[in-house]
Design brief:
- Two copies of one chain form a homodimer.
- By secondary structure, chain A is an alpha/beta fold.
- Chain A folds into three domains: 43 residues, no CATH class; 123 residues, Rossmann fold; 137 residues, Response regulator (Rossmann fold, 3-Layer(aba) Sandwich), CATH 3.40.50.
- Chain A is 40% helix and 18% strand.
- Chain A contains eleven helices and 14 strands.
- A six-stranded parallel sheet of chain A has the order 2-1-3-5-7-13, sandwiched between helices.
- The longest helix of chain A has 17 residues.
- The radius of gyration of chain A is 27 Å and the shape is elongated.
- At the A-B interface, helix 4, helix 5, strand 2, helix 6 and helix 10 of A face helix 4, helix 5, strand 2, helix 6 and helix 10 of B.
- Chain A binds a DNA duplex (30 and 30 nucleotides) through helix 2 and helix 4.
Chain lengths: 344, 344
DNA sequence: AGTGATTGCTAAATCGCGTTAGCAAAGTCA
DNA sequence: TGACTTTGCTAACGCGATTTAGCAATCACT
C-alpha cells in the first residue's frame, strides 16, 4: 500500500507553499497571480507524483460530499430497481457524484438507520425509491429539501418522480379501441374503481386511467378480476376463469407482465392462440415480455429515466430553489405481437 | 437545513471540554476517569441536541472511511447483480460499512475512472463484479490487497469468489444419471470441450463439469449445440433442431434458464410435453424458472451469498493477512418438475 | 527620493474529531 | 509538613485540503 501523495508533498517537491500548490491545482493560479513558471512546476510535479486530492478532506471543509444516497425498499425483486439504479448511477457519476446504496426491505427502523448512516456521511441528497408503497412521507432526520421520492407519491408536498401509470392506463384502452375492441377484460384488478390490491402506485393509477378512458368512450369493463398479488399463477387462475365463461376473440388488459405471462400459459394450455383468440396488452415491459410467443405488447416502466431524473432534480435543486413537485414520466408503449383486431 | 450539531456544541452545552465530550461519547470515559456526573451530563446533552458524529471528520483522521466500493460491469441485466448487491449491502451495513456502487458497462476507461473516484473517497476495499469476463486482472490504482473479484477468475493470485459452476455441471449430469438417463443432450454449448460461447465463467466451467461427469460414467454427450448467445430464441432454435432429429424421452441440459425457456416453447409448440417427452435441467434459477409449467429444475446461482462472502473476505482481511484465494460457492439444486425418468 | 500600486507568494486559520501529554486539586502516607 | 499518588479534566496537535489576510520585493509615477 503506497502512502498517499498529499498536497503538502507536491508543494514540497515543487518548492512552493501548500497554498500556492492548492491555487494552481484548482485553476485559480492566474486569478491569484502565480507566475507561469511556478504553475508549470506545480503541475508537472503533481503529475509525476500522481497526486490525487483527498476528497474526504475537501468534504470536511466544504460540508458537501459529492455523494448521493439511494435508499430503496428492495433492490432484488423485479429488475425495476436495477435499471433505476443504473440511471441514477450514470447521471450521478457524470456529474462527479457517487452513489451510496441502501436497502430497507420495507423496515422503517432499517430505513431510519440508513438515512442516519448516510446523513452521518454528509450525503448531499437522498433518493428514496419504493416498490411497495403508494404514499409515503419524506424520511425524518434529513433536510426534506434534499430528498426526492422515486416511484412513490409524497403525502405532503415534496419532490417525487413516478411513472405516469394513469396515462398508460388510458393509452392501453385507447390502443385496444383503435384496433376495434369494445369488450375489454381486466386481469389483476377491477372492475370497480377500488378493486385494487395492496397499496401500490401501479394498481390504482393504472385502473383509474383504464376506467376513465373506457368511460370517455361510453364503455365499462367487460369484466374484472382482482388478484391480491400479481404473480403468473394469479394471472393463470384469472385467465382460466375468464376462459371458462366461453369468451373468445376479445381484449384483455393484464395489470402487469407477470399476470400476462400466466394468462399466456392458460390460453396455450387451453389450446387457444394469442392474439387470434385473445388480444393481450400489459404493463412493465418485464424482460420476459420480449421472449414470449407472440411477444407481449406492453407499456414500459421507464426505470432508467426514473433514476436519472431523480438525480437531475436533486442536483438541479442545489442551484435553483423551486416549489417541490411530482413529476410523471411517460411509459412508452412497446408494440409487439399480442394485440390484434377483435374476432369478426 | 438545520445546522449540524458538533462535538464542540455538545461540550459547550455540557460545560466540559471537547476532549471530555469525545472521551465520554466514545465510551472511554471510565478508562480516562471522567466522573459519573460529567458522563451523564454529556450523554444527556448529546441526546437532547441530537448530536451525531461527523463521519467525514473521523475518516479524515483515521484514513479509513468505513466504506466499500462495489464496481460491476452491469447492474441491470440479469438480476444477478441485484441479489449480489443485496448480499453485499446487508453484510456491509451490518458491520457499519456503506457501499458505493459503480457500473462500467465493460468499459475499461470507465472502470479506471470509477476506481479512481472511489480511491479518492478513501474506500477501505473494492469488490469488482463481472458478468462478462472469465479471467481478469485486479484493477490498477488501488492496493491489490484490498480487492475481491466477484464472479471472475483472477489472472494473477488474488481473492475471488465465484459460483462453483464446475460442480454444478457435474451435479447436473449426476442428477440425470440417477434418474436413469444415459443419453444427455447439451443446449447452448458442447459437445466438444471448447465449444463455448464468449469467455464467460459459466460456459467453460459448466461444460467441464458436465463432460467430466459423463466421462466418469463412461458416457459422452448424445449431442451438443453451441449457441453464441444464451437467449430464449437461441434455446428455441437449438431445441427445434433437436426435435427434428426425432429424439424423444431423453434428457437435455440447458446451459442457462433462458435457453431452457426457449426449449420449453419449442417443445410445447411441437405439441410435446415436459418432462414426459424431455427431461430438462438447467442453471441460474432465474426468476422465470419457478413460473414455468412445469417449473424448471435448475441449479441456483448463489447471488446473495456471493455478495455477502465478498464483503466478509474484504472485512476479514483487514484483520488477518492471508494468502489470496479463489473461493467457490455451491450452486444449490432447486428440484422442481422438469426432470423425469427416461421413456421406457 | 518618496508614495502608491502591482506582482508573487505564504502564514495561519478553519472544517470536526481523536489522541497524547500533562496540569491542578484533592487525598494519602510517613 | 513535605513527598507522592490519585482524581478529573483540558490544551494542543494532526488528518488534508481551502481560504483569508497580508507581507516583501519590484515597478510606476510625481
Amino acid at each position: 500500500m503506497h502512502k498517499r501523495v498529499t498536497l503538502a508533498d507536491v508543494a514540497n517537491a515543487a518548492g512552493v507553499s501548500r497554498t500556492t500548490a492548492s491555487l494552481v491545482l484548482s485553476d485559480r493560479g492566474d486569478e491569484l497571480r502565480i507566475s507561469e513558471a511556478s504553475q508549470q512546476r506545480v503541475r508537472r510535479v503533481a503529475a509525476e507524483l500522481g497526486y490525487r486530492p483527498n476528497v474526504i478532506s475537501t468534504n470536511l471543509r466544504s460540508g458537501s460530499s459529492q455523494t448521493i444516497g439511494f435508499i430503496s425498499d428492495t433492490v432484488a425483486t423485479s429488475q425495476l430497481a436495477g435499471d433505476m439504479i443504473k440511471g441514477a448511477l450514470e447521471h450521478a457519476h457524470r456529474n462527479g457524484y457517487m452513489l451510496f446504496i441502501g436497502e430497507t426491505e420495507g423496515d422503517l427502523d432499517e430505513e431510519r438507520r440508513l438515512v442516519q448512516a448516510m446523513v452521518d456521511r454528509q450525503v448531499d441528497g437522498l433518493i428514496v425509491a419504493s416498490m411497495f408503497t403508494l404514499e409515503r412521507s419524506v424520511p425524518a432526520g434529513i433536510d426534506p429539501g434534499a430528498v426526492v421520492l422515486l416511484n412513490a407519491l409524497p403525502e405532503a408536498p415534496a419532490d417525487a418522480v413516478i411513472p405516469d401509470e394513469y396515462a398508460a392506463g388510458r393509452a392501453a384502452v385507447e390502443t385496444l379501441l383503435a384496433r376495434g375492441h369494445t369488450r375489454v377484460h381486466l386481469l389483476g384488478a377491477g372492475p370497480g374503481r377500488t378493486d385494487v390490491p395492496g397499496q401500490t402506485v401501479a394498481g390504482s393509477e393504472r385502473l383509474g386511467g383504464i376506467l376513465d378512458a373506457l368511460s370517455d368512450a361510453g364503455l365499462e369493463p367487460a369484466s374484472g378480476r382482482l388478484a391480491r398479488v400479481w404473480l403468473p399463477e394469479d394471472g393463470f387462475a384469472a385467465m382460466r376463469d375468464l376462459l371458462d365463461t366461453g369468451v373468445r376473440g376479445e381484449a384483455v388488459i393484464a395489470f402487469n407482465d407477470r399476470l400476462a405471462f400466466g394468462a399466456y400459459q392458460a390460453v396455450q394450455e387451453a389450446g387457444l392462440r394469442i392474439p387470434d383468440d385473445f388480444s393481450i396488452i400489459s404493463f412493465d415491459d418485464h424482460q420476459l415480455a420480449g421472449w414470449l410467443h407472440p411477444a407481449l405488447t406492453t407499456f414500459a416502466l421507464p426505470h432508467y429515466d426514473l433514476g436519472r431524473r431523480a438525480v437531475e432534480i436533486l442536483l438541479a435543486r442545489a442551484d435553483t430553489r423551486r416549489e417541490p413537485a411530482v413529476e410523471r414520466l411517460p411509459m412508452p408503449l412497446r408494440v409487439r405481437g399480442s394485440v390484434a383486431a377483435p374476432r369478426a
